[in-house]
Amino acid sequence: MNSYQKMMKVLTKAAKSLLPPKKQKPADWVENNLVFPDGELQGQKVNLFEFQKKPINDIVNPRVRKIVLMSSAQLLKTTVLQNSMYYFLANDPSNQIFAGQRQELQVNSGRVNGNQLLKRVQY
């Protein structure tokens, strides 16, 4: 094998890592790349229900400006929000914030006010 062939072999292998990721819907990306970190499903791939796929896919739709999730309790709304954030972190990183009711409950229950460091935080 001459030096030209060696160089072409190296460039061919390097080109694969330089190519942009294949186009896929956010819900497909979630199911192909994420696993549950804990709980009874720990280590298993995330399988989304059909009602979860639509809001996750809508996050990249330029016509959609606002997504409202309304469902009964414990239907994985947090999972939908977190998986959407993971998709953006992997494909289009930017500043993000995620806030839930848990923080308010901690303030009201005294967990924040009972902590000397957190007591000084203005909320």
Give an overview in words.
There is one protein chain. By secondary structure, the chain is mostly helical. The chain has one domain (22-119). Helices cover 50% and strands 0% of the residues. It is built from 6 helices and no strands. The chain is elongated. GO terms for molecular function: ATP hydrolysis activity. This is Phage terminase large subunit. Residues 51-103 form the Phage terminase large subunit GpA ATPase domain.
Question: Gist?
Answer:
The protein has 123 residues and is mainly α. The protein has 6 helices and no strands. Helix content is 50%, strand content 0%.
Distance between the termini: 68 Å
Counted by DSSP, the helix tally is: 6
Strand content: under 5%
* Residue windows where pLDDT falls under 50 for at least 5 positions: none
Query: Can you give the helix content as a percent range?
Result: 40-55%
The computed structural class is: mainly alpha
Please tell me the overall pLDDT: 79
